[in-house]
Amino acid sequence: MLFHFKTQFPELNVFWDKYLEFQTRLEIPAKTVLLEEGKISQQYIFIEKGCVRTFFNNNGNDKTVQFFFENEGLASLESFVNNIPSQFTIETIESSVVYLLPKQYVTQLLHELSQVPDFMQLLLQIFSRRLTHYTKELVSFIRDTPEERYQNLLSERPHIVQRVPQHYIASYLGVSTVHLSRIKSKLAKGKPHF
After folding, report:
1. For residues 100 and 75, what is the distance between their CA atoms, to the nearest angstrom?
2. Of 94, 83, 90, 33, whose CA–CA distance to 56 is shortest?
3. CB contact at 8 A, 45 and 99
4. DSSP conformation class of 132
5. Domain ranges, ordered by start, for the chain
6. How many other CB atoms are found less than 10 A from the CB of residue 53?
């Protein structure tokens, strides 16, 4: 999240590269927990390869909140910034390659970047985009039917449907896997045949 500039603003990579020696590179299998719900987030996670999800436990059931893929970064932000227990677990869905940068170095990096002209404006744009995305998802969850939410996923982020196991997609949409199968079946029947 914070460091989307790696691909969008390559001129800032010189700052990121200064901190490579403080990062831990991990090649990890699917279902590896990178942060457990209730623990304090102390690492910024950058995904080189793979897929990661955030979720929370709701009376024994996982509720998936978000998916992250290559060249994206994340932390349990509120936990990371405020030193409070994370509301989410962060776990790999696929075999992944991730980099972990400890909080103290993230703080130093952000301090250095704050001296770069227009960096704060860039940071605000990144946070604004992320907030807009989450707001749109919240409104969709309240307003749209599960079928509409699935269709939105297919049209706006088809890579999730292609790469993420169905039970995680069902959890993300707030439906059972059986309900998701019904939605997919109904949509398949509605397709025109040529």
Report:
1. 10
2. 90
3. yes
4. H
5. 5-117
6. 22
- Closest C-alpha to 104, from 21, 7, 22, 2: 22
Q: Facing residues of 102 across strands?
A: 43
Pairing mode of beta strands 33-35, 73-74? unpaired
φ/ψ (deg, to 5) at 112: -65, -45
Q: Structurally, what CATH architecture does the domain formed by 5-117 represent? A: Sandwich (2.60)
Residue written as token pair 């999240």: 1
For residue 1, pLDDT beyond 50: no
Task: For 114-161, write each residue's pLDDT tens digit.
Answer: 888 887 787 788 778 888 888 888 898 889 999 999 999 999 999 999
Q: How far apart are CA 7 and CA 13, in angstroms?
A: 9
Residues 6+ apart with CB under 8 A from 57: 37, 63, 89
What are the tens digits of pLDDT across the range 37-88? 999 999 999 999 999 999 999 988 899 999 999 988 899 989 999 999 999 9
Burial tier of 151 (Cβ tally within 10 Å: 0-12, 13-18, 19+):
middle
- CB burial of 76-108 (b: ≥16 within 10 Å; e: otherwise) equals bbebbeeeeebebbbbbbbebebbbbebebbee
| Tokens describing residue 11 | 């001129």
**What type of residue sits at position 162?**
Q
Give the predicted TM-score (pTM) of the model. 0.86
How far apart are the C-alpha atoms of 86 and 35, rounded to whole Å? 8
